[in-house]
Amino acid sequence: MMELQQNTDEWLEFRRKKIGSSDAPIIMGKSPWKTPHQLWEEKTGVGTKDVSYESKAMQRGKFLEPEARKKFEEETGLVVWPDVLIHPEHDFMIASLDGITMDGKTAVEIKCPGAKTHQMAVDGEVPEHYRIQMQHQMMVVGVETMYYFSFDGTQGVILEIRRDQEMIDSLVTCETAFYKCMTEFNSPSPPREDIEWQQRANHWREIQLQKKRVTDEEKLCRQNLIQLAKGKSSYGSGLRVTKVLGKGRVIYDNVPELKSVDLEQYRSPPRESWRFSSDDSK
To answer: Could you give the domains of the chain?
Structure first.
């Protein structure tokens, strides 16, 4: 464990020079509160905003965190401590953990959110920016799963989040590029504001909304047809609905012979792809 107390001046200065888990969704353009350029200003000292500023929601979360951690321990039987870890290969990547067991095998991210976000946890959902934050933490800690604990001040909801290697690969690429911008004092590219880009972007977003509506309608229609089929393959009006039983996928994590095998050496070369995301999904 690092001998560095979180939320002290020393901690804030240390964090400013590193990329932490809360920085990850900002760098990926998925933060509801901050842009990559604003984060770069804070990291380099160009910005005038006080990085130690805390909103009422942040103050509430910090106040409730010890009680939430105790509640998590009671419900799981685990004993966890706050800690700060550094990535073993990329020392500019850090993770400030709300709780981790002494053996370093189990970690938890604690949130004390508003009613809407807590209800998402009740429904089994985690906001995208929190999922990205936790993938960064799993990358630094080196675990395959960790817990998300949403606490409303009275009741808690525990969700288990699995490691997403594709997202982690993207995090490594984007965070490395952002850190280079920090150290070389080069600002990340500002948002495009030219008219043609705005028109094309708005057109793309409209298409995505139309596609979602059609997808939702198709899903409902499909469910209705399956119900009408009553468990049997059916045909009518030129449409054939066939019941198919496929093989289950192999869960390689459960194969004992592969426990000590480094599967990374068998990974195919990286492929270039483009991922589109809209502010509407935040």
So the answer is: 9-183 (3.90.320.10), 199-241+264-281 (no CATH)
